[in-house]
Amino acid sequence: MAKSILNKLQFISDENLIDIEQAKADGRSVIGFYCMYTPSEMAIAANAIPVPLCGTRNDPIAAAEEILPRNLCPLIKSSFGFATTGTCPFFKLSDIIIGDTTCDGKKKMFELLSRYKPTYVLQLPQNQDMFTALPFWHAELQRFRKIIEAHSGVAITEDGLRAAIRLMNRTRNSIKALMDVNKARPVLLSGSQLLEILFKVEFLADKEKGIKLMEEVIAQAHSGAFRSKTAGSGTGRRILLTGVPVGLGSDKVVKIVEQSGADVVAFENCSGYKKAFVVDEKKDPMEALAEQYLATPCSVMSPNDKRFDLLKDLIQEFSVDGVIDLTWQACHTYNVEAFGIGEFVQKTFGMPTLHLETDYAESDTEQLRVRIEAYLEML
Amino acid sequence: MRFAGIDIGSRTIELVIVNEAGQIVESRQADTGFNPQMEAGKLINGVSYDRIMATGYGRNLFEISFDAPTVTEIKTHARGARAFFPDARTVLDIGGQDSKAISMFENGRVKKFEMNDRCAAGTGKFLEIMARTLGYDIESFGLQALMAKKDLNISSMCTVFAESEVTSLIAGGQNRQEIARGLHTSVIRRAAGMINRVSSEGDIVFTGGVAKNPCMRALLAEKLGRDILVPEDPQLVGAFGAALLAGEIQ
Fold this sequence. Notes:
The complex is a heterodimer of chains A (379) and B (250).
Chain A: H1 2-25, E1 30-33, H2 40-45, E2 49-52, H3 61-64, H4 74-85, H5 89-93, E3 96-100, H6 104-113, E4 119-122, H7 133-152, H8 158-180, H9 191-202, H10 207-222, E5 238-243, H11 252-259, E6 263-268, H12 285-294, H13 305-317, E7 322-328, H14 332-349, E8 353-358, H15 365-378
Parallel strand pairs in A: 1-2, 1-3, 3-4, 5-6, 5-7, 7-8
Helix pairs in contact in A: 4-6, 7-12, 8-10, 11-15
Chain B: E1 3-8, E2 12-18, E3 24-31, H1 36-44, E4 51-55, H2 59-66, H3 73-84, E5 88-94, E6 99-104, E7 110-115, H4 124-134, H5 138-146, H6 159-171, H7 176-198, E8 203-207, H8 214-224, E9 228-229, H9 237-248
Parallel strand pairs in B: 1-4, 5-8, 8-9
Antiparallel strand pairs in B: 1-2, 2-3, 5-6, 6-7
Helix pairs in contact in B: 3-9, 4-6, 4-7, 5-7, 5-8, 7-8
């Protein structure tokens, strides 16, 4: 039964590309975006299709390194490499690209990316202060709105925005419900499987399809359909993964944890739990969007207290045994934040953390395995 | 009952047999070579034991071919060091490819550990290549470094970069012993940093093949400003710890 869902997912993913091509032929625009700071509601309200573009695979990195420095974060290199090699169908289908200033490397990469596609970069404030940062960010989102309107040729109305917010809230609620499945003990869904489903659903142009699929997975997970084969024996340690986002192709740490007999039960990162937010449907839509998106607990914000709050909640709610903090090489913000995270988890829960710094290549798999196994032995 | 521990490292394989009292009754060593599975098989051939536990980089390979439980080097070095020195709280293990600093709770459980990056910076392999660059054999490398009158600063930790740095120093007419000393110091500087990140309390035990190097021992003690404990054969500590853990399986 579990297998049929994954087959279905594959089928829907293939169908999705045809859907997007058809939509484009019908005159709808496709907006590629790189980060969850970009409100996809705005694209939806303009009858456009938002698609996430972050690179999570190692394959295009070599090509990217012909232009970008080698000692740069693999996520940036992978993202850029997909563009230069033309191997990402979603990048190809995008009419415009929305970047963001979530790190210096990305910021400068977007300047080069604009040679391949029309690229607009959202300027983020550096903190989440309600009096200084919010008005700035609100203005930035107004600019974003105009860009979308200009490209899609569709005026974004307040009603349109409200409907988009409702739709995305439903999507995010499903994502949250899906992730919450593993509050159960023993786990109902393996971390890899959760990752695969979340990753693929994210690309679906038809959000309703995604919601329906996730609801189906949730129901099946609760009936134990995934448990036997993929999820652990139930005796494994419960691990929370925090730090940088992981996706298909850059999930080696999740795999090693599972091969070592533990379960990744929660992802405190922007491919996981950071997505589980709700935009206030009662407020003025632009204000509500600005507020909620600014609240994203990303390490680019200084200070980034909200990440500590989220981490604390998740450690408790998922009753985890250990926390692995993942940093991609050259991601300075997450790398520096790791010290404080380790200290915080130790002080609050008396639990050691494991900080790993790596990239997408498989070359350090065995070294990572030693660290991960040794960490599991400690718990 | 006899319990065996086998440590399949990147450079050497050690086999240790302990009796029920946890005393070493037999030990063997071999080079890992390019076929660790075969070498490990040869090493255990003819040795009698009731249970065996594997550690080191080849542990998973061993687990598959000999159906033995495995444990990481981190835990075995902590366990082994502790058996030699009951008050030990910190272990520095520098082996062929890895260096690790491990701190323990009072009861001997691993509290925290740090490892070098993916490359062989600051490990036995690094010292081996540097010795060769300077024309020393690995046994005399440490002694020669100890005889230096001063330290030449070497800043590269990457083996290839350090090799160029050493080559330029040689070309600049610098003293060979002093270059050797500088190389030792650069490894110890990094190792001390790793130790300070995990702990700064209790007795420190230095294990792994590099602990046989007298200059490394002296510089570590000097850098940390305290005595360093080194077991008689520091290279056996991992296998010894594994043997003890094999005996502790419930």
